[in-house]
From TrEMBL:
Pfam families: CH. It comes from Fulmarus glacialis (Northern fulmar). InterPro entries: CH_dom, CH_dom_sf. GO terms for cellular component: actin filament; cytoplasm; microtubule plus-end; stress fiber. This is GAS2-like 2. It is found in: Cytoplasm, Cytoskeleton. Belongs to the GAS2 family.
Amino acid sequence: SYGKMWGTPSTTVRSIRPYQSSEQYLYAMKEDLAEWLKELYDLDIEVGTFMEVLETGAVLCSHANNVTHVAGEFARACPGVAHHLRLPTTGVTCNLAAQPGTFQARDNVSNFIQWCRKEMDIKDVLMFETEDLVLRKNEKNFVLCLLELARRATRFGMRAPTLVQMEEEIEEELRQELDLPP
């Protein structure tokens, strides 16, 4: 029964499938990322305007530059740890005035994508293409890339979106259950 499933000590059932469909899961991820970006940058963004606010690439490039800045501060504060992490060292050029759908917007998004690949070492399977965002071709890949970027940036001290925090808590619980080292 429903109640029994949720009462199991295993966290995996509860964590991986709380959503009935991938659409609901995508919505939840967008909601979480919107909330996080809003708090980080005092942005006017919510789940309903998520793609619109990000489609010019200006926020994405600013975020990339902020992540690079935080990484630099981390490297100065903890050189020993930083040495073992692949930290981003250069940011991106950005046209903050780019209008939706324009060449400048595509250029911003393209710069962000290159930065994710080169500076953050995000694998192709978690990457998106310019048109995925600009023409809304594949929202899922775009959202997964932002989450992966957030995950990697927590390693050097950036605050994570709630979903990433939950993943880390679940991993920690599983580690303890299986007696694995942290």
